[in-house]
């Protein structure tokens, strides 16, 4: 029986239940946090995360897939402290998040650098998947990378490292992309050139567009598309996101879509109060409270909702 690694250990893929495929617990700059501790209250933040994730569980969600990797402040021990208090599966990731260059740690060694040699990222990602993260024994279940506006040398290097780690481990891949810049197609091209089966890839943030021709091309290339930023109405209103999913589902493409918010319990990119004002719907329960009823009203069937929330995540990890 296929199993999926979670923060609390292995879970049979058939037991993942209802899955939101792109949610963070914390998104932090750890260097800022450690040097300016007055900006962070550990106990308060952990308690708030437990409250928010408990609310999500009460809505009927069984699993969240958390693509928090290097560059986003991954601290698997903190997430484990939260998860110990919530009956929810949290699926962790390996990888690196950048829109341009790699961190200085990687600048002097690896392909195309001053010292050359193999890319140390590959072994790091593989270790996270096969041995565990940060000595905890908690293993990553998938790989995460990003491409925003363009394929910079640094971004391409991360994509190559993720592709190699995928080939060595079989772990599936999720890519942060920008539909406005067509970078889902760029990511697919680079990963395919490196031997990745695009059927094991989610093209994240595809739901930020109503361009169904672009979305169909991503699907035709074999990947899942992440309709995964519900609540970020400043990028695209919920009504438009719902209409796009309903249109694609009506064309028989529910089997290639997964749902989420890309929300978090706490993200330090914004000053206090900003998100509540600018994106009041960007939170974990928006899909179950608002989006699913709207999708039903738009003609999406219960079976199609189950396909997107249950069946597709199982196939992706299975």
TrEMBL record:
It comes from the Bacteria. Keywords: Hydrolase, Metal-binding. It holds the Pfam family PTE. The modification N6-carboxylysine is found at residue 144. InterPro entries: Metal_Hydrolase, Phosphotriesterase. The keyword Thylakoid does not apply. Belongs to the metallo-dependent hydrolases superfamily. Phosphotriesterase family. This is Phosphotriesterase. It comes from Saccharopolyspora halophila.
